[in-house]
Amino acid sequence: MRARVTVVLVASNGADFLPRTLDAVKAQTRQPDSLIVVDVGSTDSTPALLSGALPTHFIQASGRLSFGTAVAHALGVVPPPVDENEWLWLLAHDTAPEPDALAALLAAVEVNPSVAAAGPKQMDWEHSDYISEFGETITRFGATYSMAETELDQAQHDRMSDVLGVGAAGMLVRHTVWNDLSGFDDALPTADNGLDFSVRVRLAGHRVMGVPAARIASAGVGLAGPGRSEKGRARRKRQADRRAAQLHRRLVYAPAFAVVFHWLSLVPLAVVRSLAQLVRKQPGAIGGELSAAFRTAFGSRVTEARRNLRAAKRVGWNTIAPLRIPGDEVRRRRSLQREIALTHLRGEKDRIQFIATGGVTTVLIFAVLGLIMFVPLIGAIALTGGSLLPVSATLGELWSHVGYGWRDIGLGFVGAADPFTSVLAVLGSITFWSPSLAIVGLYLAALPLAALAAWFLAARLTDKPWLRAVAAVLWTLAPTFLSSLDQGAIGAVIAHLLLPWVVLAGLAARKSWSASAMAAILFAVTLAGAPSLWPALLIVWAVSVATAGRNVARYIGIPIPALALFLPLAWDQFRAGNPLGLLADPGVPAVREPGSILALLSGIPDSAQSGWTGLASMVGIDSSVLQIVLAIAVVPLALAALLALVLPGPSVTRAIVAVVGSILGLATAIASTRISLDAVGADPVMLWAGPGLSLYWLGLICAAVVGLHALKRFSLAPGFLAATTVVVVAVPLVASTLLGSSAIQTTDARLLPAFVTAEAASTPRVGTLVLTPQRDGGIKSAIVTGTGVTLDDQSTLAATNRDATRDAELADLIGNLASQSGSDSTPRLAELGVEFVLLANPPAEADPALTTTTTRSTAAFDANASLTTVGKTFAGKLWQITGTDGISTLPEPTPSNLGSATGVLVLVAQGIVFLLMLLLALPAGRLQPHGTRAVSGLEPAGASMPDEVEGDDDDDDEDDDENAKAPDGPAAGEAGTRGPAASLRRLISKRKPRPDAAAEAAAAAAAASSVAVASAPDGVSSPEADLSRDVATEQPVTDPGAVSTTSAEETERSSGAEELVSSESGDGVASPRPDESTTAQAATAEPAAPAADAQLAESTPRDDGAATLIHPGEDFDLIGAPEPEAAHVDETPSLADLVEAPASTELPPVEAEPTGEFVESPEAVQESQPVGEDVAPEPSPEPELSPAPAPAPEPEPEPSAQPVSDDSFVYTPPPTASSSQPEAEADPEPAFSHPRAMPDDIDEGYDPDAETVMRVKPIDLSHEEDEHDGR
Predict the structure, then answer these.
(1) Which pLDDT score, from 0 to 100, does residue 454 have?
(2) What average pLDDT is seen over the chain?
(3) I need a labelling partner for 872 at 20 to 30 A (CA). Which of 193, 496, 829, 1016 fits?
């Protein structure tokens, strides 16, 4: 009986695709019997186009419906099927079948009666030589896996027949089976809708088949499937839908006792997988993971789906086991994909060449210079002086000062720690046995670290080795950097070292999540060391966000770690009414006279003029003249930077950005010299201009490198002149430590005299009053507990506090104690826990006022009967309070950073933020190839692959939770795995194919293949003799070549491979494609005219949307579409269903063993696994041969060559010199292949050996295990 086919075409705003699709349906060689079109909420010209096609029925839905729901609406207007020979062909507006697609599908299902669903080979809409999708399967734990996706079609999948699932687009499904299974699952609108339906078809006792001879063009807009758009939002939505579909299938497929456990694991597993997405550099997938878990847990219709599955299930889960892809094959394919990416990375030209272009030499030179410069520091365990102090002696004490808690400064208070304290804690942890040693190591390594950072940044801007070295010299010997080292401004030093890396990471963040996270961490550390850079860096960040375009997400989160560090301190500063206190420099407040505007333009932050002031005074040079001379020394660098703005070329933009950054840095430095947030005695403490000048200097260097690079051969002289002048300016600062003029001194980490330290061993909270005479006659006082105040004890919150009332009492006590006023202050000091009084030594070159203050205070202390002189120490003269009744003990420093809810909350929040950023920054992402087109050599010249393809990988590990596997079925493990297709789609969509692109690709692949044409061995009949009849249907079989339809495009695609195949005589032999040589042409009939008076079937409208039945030529009336009517299901399986096996619809080529270095493998016979029922497997190596209705012609030789892979790295054997081919032998099967099928049979005594069949030697891929992508 002739099959009856009803085409159901669903469209939604598809006016751009519909004309081609409708023309393709009309051009079918086997016309469908009826055409039902469904318009789903279109707002363009889609309804008019559908109406113009004169369909049998036209249904217009009032709302957005899924593809499966729209098909169900369409079937409500047709009568129920009367027999098993009625078929539905499901199409979307973006699926245009080739003329013989329907004929090929019908030919396949007619010769295989047990097949209830068949799927075509989906090709790319614009590139018809690329497969978009063909066949789906699942891993051992239920993860979706596409058998072929976005790869060049070289007939490498044409031997595949039985598959676990096929896509919804283009599916040919038996009408009765559709009704029995209630169609697609409503909970799967796009992702896995076809796969889930196919699995249910299999469990109902039927077969699912892929038909490679049937080809349709699919644009993948997301109506019949998850879509293939590579836009960020669409890609993230697709990934979330796939994950939700996987979780839904997990709950539906799992046995009843496991459903509760799977449901409880949804949200916790989503959290774990979100962390894994960070490690894989896919933070955009986190939202999809969480939303999929919550949608499935609280909104999925699992109960209804399980009920439908249970009602239709006829066989066990073990029947589909042979069609699953093994886990080792999944890992092998992913390994090969990674190897493809690594192959491209190895082939890229190394632009950096750190060793070859002198990078190592430059760093080593500055390492030696740094050791010479800081020779006095070698062997020291701690440093002090300027803004520097030793840090806490133990690692536990160091970390206890981080976060929010007690600040042991003065009389103590509770507040937020400086963000720089966290930096010191991390730095001190490197030398955990002696945390202060890390500061010494930083000084010794400062110069080579600066040179390394500048060299790599210059390597991003130029490929000239000498210019990179010049940039390293300019940055390492920058006056502001050396001045910060000289003054102990450790925060400014760290900011100078990190600024080039911040720029590098920021530039790379446009294409890399790892670089974005690293930029965020460096951004935070830089601001922690130099808070005055907040305004400038925020402006740079805002500009980056505004110009990032579609990559804006990678820049928005850069300030988050810095905000996490500064928010607790910002809260306290705003409560204290001092928001500018956030900009205060960390460390010990130090009085420094800022430099003039001219000095700042020269890159010099203070009035010492980089040490030249003393030398100039020795030779009688005025200070103003010195400033002019030093400014002239920087002119070559400034001219080189300005030159970049006027030279033509593509680097002008870079130069403009660098100059703008330089201006921001200079403005920051100038503002710093005008802002005072602290005071030491009567002297105001200005912000250190060093960080701003570092940014200013970095901008000048970058612009100069760009300008000198553009100057080409004339750049050598100005470049060396700029470097030479900076070297000369740096000479006094380089020698300052050697000459002893530096503010930095070595120390043994003792901050107080040994007498106090010994007392602190027994009384840890012993108090010491430290007095420091000032030049204005005053005395600076501080109460120090224990062994002394350390660098991590310092707090800008206390230093910038403008409320002096809390220290007023202490000031009165000190005034009375140091002036012999007759008022004894020692009892009150004893009550405050003070046991010692230390008067610090005056400087070596103290002025008279300071000396007078020291002398007067010493006399007053000596005359006080309550003070006992201990003696002179390295820190000053020491007295002990002994004439009082007793010394009170200072209160314990509570709460600590872990002693209050606020402290814990701050630490947890900061820890989570930085942990997430570190996970994202660590280079642990999986390399993904850009697709097989790039591998096959079709990538345009000069194109390069990035180190990582991030955010595009929709693959999920198949075994992340092995306990999800149910004993009686797949527990749907990980999200759908789609291979390397996403990257390739972007690649092939950006360039139009040349007319001969397909032929060139086929020719290249054929040349790379090791498969040769061989004569058939003895006992193997010709293809014509093998074409028998189907035992079940008793249909005659004729030569498929007589009725084969080969399009011009297919001929062109295969011509390249045909020219490379030779016969024994050496003449070219045309080898048709396997899917072309066996396509059976079905009998055609006159297309059914659309019914002029189509009637709407009586039924109840569906709840999920209203539909309209449109009579052709009449007005559109909105009516309810009825429910599809279910047909009676015969639950007794037929004998054919019990003994069926997977089928093949084409003749694979006869092949000889490959020539080359590989040794022929032993013959291996593959056993085919019956899929329809739970019966024992029946071995059958013979492929099934599809019949055709035409009579068979005379036999003729039909050699063919089938390419093995579309990968460019497939082993290419040397051409054979022999004119004869060896006899073909059966080679082992590849690592994973679908079971081969024999024709359906209802005869219990069917014997495959009794039939005249063609024994086909499978392609030997075993020797290409490490080279073939397995698809």
Answers:
(1) 95
(2) 73
(3) 829
CA distances 328 to 366, 589, 959, 1166, Å, are 51, 63, 11, 19
Q: pLDDT at residue 790 above 60?
A: yes
HSE of 876, CA atoms in CB hemisphere, 13 A: 22
Rounded CA separation 343/334 (Å): 14
Rounded-to-integer distance, Cα 404 and Cα 426, Å: 17
Quick one: which of 311, 205, 309 has its CA closest to 1135?
205
Q: Report the b/e string of 769-808 with b at 16+ CB within 10 A.
A: bbbbbbbeebbbbebbbbbbbbbbbbbbbbbbbeeeeebe
Q: What is the mean pLDDT of residues 132-144?
A: 82
- CA neighbor of 1050 nearest in space, from 101, 219, 308, 275: 101
User: What is the tens place of the pLDDT at every residue in 79-118?
Assistant: 888 888 889 999 988 888 999 999 999 999 888 888 999 9
Classify residue 246 as left (phi > 0), alpha (psi -120 to 50) or beta. Answer: alpha
Q: What are 774's two structure tokens?
A: 């000032």
Task: Reply yes or no: is the peptide bond before residue 1124 cis, omega within 30 of 0.
Answer: no
pLDDT of residue 287: 81
Residue that has been written with the tokens 């069609």 in this structure? 323
Q: Give the three-class secondary structure for 1114.
A: coil
- CA gap 431, 428 in Å, rounded: 6
Write the secondary structure of 993-1046 as one string of H (helix), E (strand) and C (coil): CCCCHHHHHHHHHHHHCCCEECCCCCCCCCHHHHCCCECCCCECCCCHHHHCCC
Cβ–Cβ contacts within 10 Å for residue 350, how many?
9
The answer to whether 569 and 418 have CB atoms below 8 angstroms apart is: yes
Distance CA 844, CA 1220 (A): 101
The DSSP secondary-structure symbol of 1087 reads P
Q: Long-range contacts of range 715-721, CB-CB < 8 Å, 24 or more positions apart?
A: 715/464, 715/467, 716/466, 718/636, 718/639, 718/640, 719/466, 719/467, 719/470, 719/640, 720/470, 721/636
Q: Which residue has the tokens 């003449």?
A: 1067
Q: Is the dihedral of CA 989, 990, 995, 997 positive or negative?
A: negative
Name the residue with higher pLDDT: 1072 or 722: 722
Angle between helices 513-529 and 534-547 (to 10 degrees): 160
End-to-end distance of the chain based on CA atoms, in angstroms? 38
CB-CB neighbours of 681 under 10 Å: 15
pLDDT(1265) > 50? no
pLDDT of residue 453: 95
- b or e along 242-275 (b: 16 or more beta carbons within 10 Å of the residue's beta carbon)? bbbbbbbbbbbbbeeebbeebbebbeebbeebbe
Question: What is the rounded CA–CA span in Å between residue 1077 and residue 1079?
Answer: 6
pLDDT above 90 covers a percentage of the chain that reads 20
Sign of torsion, CA 414 420 426 427? negative
Q: What is the pTM of this model?
A: 0.68
Compute the distance between CA of residue 85 and CA of residue 5 in angstroms, rounded to an integer: 9
Q: How many helices (H) and strands (E) does the chain have?
A: 43, 26
Taking only Cα atoms into account, the Rg of the chain, rounded to an integer number of angstroms, comes to: 40
Is the pLDDT at 1101 greater than 80? The verdict is no
Q: Which has more pLDDT, 1071 or 422?
A: 422
The H or E element spanning position 405 is strand 404-407
* 3-class DSSP assignment, residue 837: strand
CA 623 to chain centre: 56
Amino acid at 82: V
874 vs 754: CA distance, rounded Å? 9
Give percent helix, percent strand, percent coil of the chain, each to the nearest 5. 45, 10, 45
CA atoms within 13 A on the CB side of 1084: 15
Confidence category of residue 995, pLDDT binned at 50, 70, 90: very low
- 209's enclosing H/E stretch is strand 207-218
